Amino acid sequence: MTGLETKIEKKKADIEKRKTIITKQENKLSTITDQWDIRWQQDEIKSSQRKLRDLEIQLENLYKQQEKKSKIDNVERVPVIEEFLEAWKIRVIEWYITDYNRIKEYINQRNKKRKQFEAWKQENHIYHYNSKEAQEKEKELGIDYETYKEYMKHQSQFTLILLDKGSNWQAYLKKEIEKDKNNKRALFIARVKEITGKITDVSWLTIGDNGEINGVVTGEKGKAKVETISAGGWNIQCYHFRVLVRELI
After folding, report:
1. CA–CA separation, 141 vs 18, rounded Å?
2. What pTM, to 2 d.p., does this model score?
3. Residue 224: what are its φ and ψ, rounded to 5°?
């Protein structure tokens, strides 16, 4: 059972529990004669009914997520497109691993310098972080907060998320990139089929030495020209691509 299926089953169980609560509240209401108690019990029932409706809406949204995921997962696989997307996935994962290690090393070095800073404070009998001497020493070592904030401001937001995942960061990375790969496949195929209809021939669709996928896809409705524009893969810019699809007359 997938995580989404587990959420759906739990939400269904919560709905049944809430229905049971409402039934008990309604049964209790039928035995009450005091007007104030009746009003109080009616308010309790209305509150439970609102909670039930919220749970039902949440379940509907989970079903929508499941339907969307099913459509993405069941998109047809075209070998040459699969090869292109898999190469993209590997390249992106490698980039984020390198980026993670780079930022992690920066943090480790900063922590080492902080230990040096603490030792320096003790040697110089400085006990307040906000003293002028302490602030100047922090800047000299490059461990002051402003320097740290400025450094982090220019880093990949996704890499910073990975840093918060602890020992599970690589598993999280692979899971998220695989999810992104599936979304890209669904979008790629949908844009092509919008022009070609059912795909019948991809023999003219090829992957170049630069990793880009280009060529012509033929379908029952017509032909589509595919062009890839890619960038990044170095410094702080992760490799990414944009696929252009247009009808061939």
Report:
1. 59
2. 0.77
3. -130, 135
